[in-house]
Amino acid sequence: MSQNLIDMSLTSENLGAIDNAISAIEQQLSSLIGLTPDLRRQLTKMGDKSEAFCRQAVDVLGENPGILPRDFDYPALRRDLQMLDVLRPRIIRMRKLQQLLDDSEMALGSDVMSGALEGYAFLKVAGKGKGLDELRKMLAFRFSKRAATSNTEPPPALPAA
C-alpha cells in the first residue's frame, strides 16, 4: 500500500477507557441543551465584537441594581457569563480533540480508499483467469455509469475471506 497517513490501534481496554471517559463527560454535562436549527437562526448571538459590550453591561448593571425592574434576573445573567467563562477552555479543548478525530477519520478513510483502489488495480491486471473474475466484476460496480445514475441495488457484498 503506497499511502499510510495514519497507523493507529486501540485495544479493547483503550476503547473501554475512552467510552467510560465519554460517559463521564456526558454525565457531568447533562445540563447541556440542544437547539433546533430554527431556534439557532432566531437567537440573538453574542459574537466576538459584542462580547466586550456584554461584559461591560453585566458589570454596569451589577453596580447599579436600582435601575433594573424587579423581574430582571440579574443573578441569572451573571451566572450565565460566569458559566461561559468556565466552559470556554473546555470547549476549546474539545474542539481541538474533535478536529483531531475528524482529521484521523479522514486519514483512515483515505488510507482505506487508496489501498482499495490500489488493490483493485492489481486485481484487474493480475487477477484475470485466476477465478477472481466475479469478485472483480462486483468491485467494478462502484465505477460503472449504471451505478452512478441508477437507483438499482449494488451487487451483493464480497464474501468474507
What are its keywords?
single chain; 161 residues; mainly alpha; 6 helices
Radius of gyration from the alpha-carbon trace, in angstroms: 27 Å
- The average pLDDT value, as a whole number, equals 90
How can the largest sheet be summarized? none
Structural class: mainly alpha
- Give the low-confidence spans: none
Share of helical residues: 55-70%
Q: How many strand segments?
A: 0
Order of helices and strands: HHHHHH
Strand content: under 5%
Instruction: Give the terminus-to-terminus CA distance.
Output: 19 Å
Oligomer: single chain
Categorize the overall geometry: elongated
Q: How many helices in DSSP terms?
A: 6
Please tell me about this protein's structure.
The chain has 161 residues and is an all-alpha fold. It has a domain at 46-149. Helix content is 65%, strand content 0%. It has six helices and no strands. The chain has helices spanning 12-28, 37-42, 48-63, 74-126, 133-140, 145-149. It is elongated and about 90 Å long. It starts with 11 loop residues before the first helix and ends in a 12-residue tail after the last helix.
Strand and helix layout:
Elements: H1 12-28, H2 37-42, H3 48-63, H4 74-126, H5 133-140, H6 145-149
Helix pairs in contact: 3-4
Brief characterization of the structure:
Helix 3 packs antiparallel against helix 4 (74-126). The chain has helices at residues 12-28, 37-42, 48-63, 74-126, 133-140, 145-149. It contains six helices and no strands.
